Records
---
Amino acid sequence: MASNTTIFSTSSTPICALSSQQSLLPWVSDNVLAIILPTTVYAVAGAFFHLLDSYRIFSNHRIHPSDEELKRNHVTRWECFQAVVRYHLMQISIGLLLNYGNGPALVGDEACKIHDTASAIRNVRNVVPMFLNALGIDAKQLSIATLGTSTKFAQFVSGSDSYASNNNNNNPTALDLSLAKFAIKILIPLLQYTLALIVVDTWIYFTHRLCHVNHTLYRLVHAQHHRLYVSYAYGAVYAHWLETLFLDILSFILATEIAQLSARQSMLFGSLATIKTISDHCGYVFPWDPFRWVNGNGAVFHDLHHQSWGLKYNFSTYTVFWDNLLGTTWADHEGAKKRYQRVRDMTAKRSVMKDVAVSERCEEQAVAEGKREE
């Protein structure tokens, strides 16, 4: 048992001091970068898909034939582009306003953060032997019996009782430090991102659904977004300015505050959310699309919502949780295929009729001009 002291050795308390975190880029603060990065990602991704559209690359992966866009959409690309620019100007302006006067984040030495977290974990671990004893299991004997085979387990079940170590101070043990490193580097950020996703997904689902349930809201605000029946990437955030403010921007402000995301975490979260929004509206279905495989909420899922017969379904943007829970997921996939095909046939028929009408008008004009010349 001589090794008991070494195995359960504790860490001395480091001297901690806060200092300003150095920016990722020397010419712009992290706060400002977190605001402009999603817009930069949007511009790059939008331009990429615009090139695919323009040069008919990967046309076999398009949800709609290219010609449908001109015939079915009720807004020109130039009008859409202007609204998208306004969206991003609003987003950047509000972000800069909310961050006005904020300096760089104050951070402590990593050893201090790990030590503080490990101390908290050490206090929480006191519950383990209490719980085991309540079940009639002698935590002390269990710890001693397993010490030779699994030191981590022995240390875990012992809590911070003095029998687990020859050190009677309150400093964290090696196990506490290991758990603290895992919590700081993986667990806590994962929980923060998950909470932020829950906030954004919930806010957008219910406000989006409200815009469809309330006819006044739909007519005055949300109908603008649905002028795009055949959506394309850079038109992803084409919307009324009120929708921009209350549905999109406000959702991310709430998520950032509730999940307590740092500026650098906001960079990642905002950029990934932007890529997801672009992907939903890009009009392409690629076999390697990660969003499609994660939970089924991909380009097809959202494109169906943009059709006149799918307006009351598929309100979610990031997950399918609320749609599945509240019964607003479109489930008739075969029916959707038939409806898509019917729309294509009708669009093609109208196109032929329009071409015939144009041809007839041209012939009539040619005949009339010939008579005038005679």
---
Amino acid sequence: MPEPVLYINGMPGVGKHTIAKAVQKQLGMASTIVSYHMHHDYTQSLTPEPFGEFRARYRRLLNVLFETFADADVERWAYIVTDDRISDHHGTAIANEYRDAARRANRLFIPVILECATEEHEKRLTSEERREKKARGANIEVDPHQFMVFRGLIGEIHRFRSPEELVIDVTEMTAEQTAAMISDHVKRVMREKRERVEEGLRKKAAKIQDMEYAAREMLREAEKLKRESAIEP
């Protein structure tokens, strides 16, 4: 079975990428991190205006990623995706595309939703690390006032509400603590999935055995009838 797609969704500035790197270390499996900025910023560097050709190029990049989920050469690699999709029509549609692409590739899709209290979120938005990234040209928000206005307008982060989903309030947690919780969750979900698959295989094998037994009994009965009919006067 291919390794899973771990989809970490949360508001910008809550620490998704830092947490993803910590998860990568703790999971103990080959993996790669794919961030929203990887696709968005690269596309924007080619097409500055976020309209027309920008959307077409962004869509092509997403499709390439989705295709790699099903590539046999990388099926032993887990994908750790960081995103900030909200629960509007567009955000929900894109988030669901990640889920559907994982399912088509027979990968387990494990959503993780990160929440953070407003005061702590402001601190993280203005952290030294984010300001350094901004100074190096990263397309990220570091003005807490502007972002909090934006946060109030855009609504809630998208949730899948599936049995595999994990919701974490990271307000008082370090990246390492959050990563440990996520890693434990991923391993548990994967273990339960393997157990269900193995149970399904056992039931299938038992059903085949029952069918073979029934076929043998029918054959014996047919042979018995044949012998009885042969000795009749």
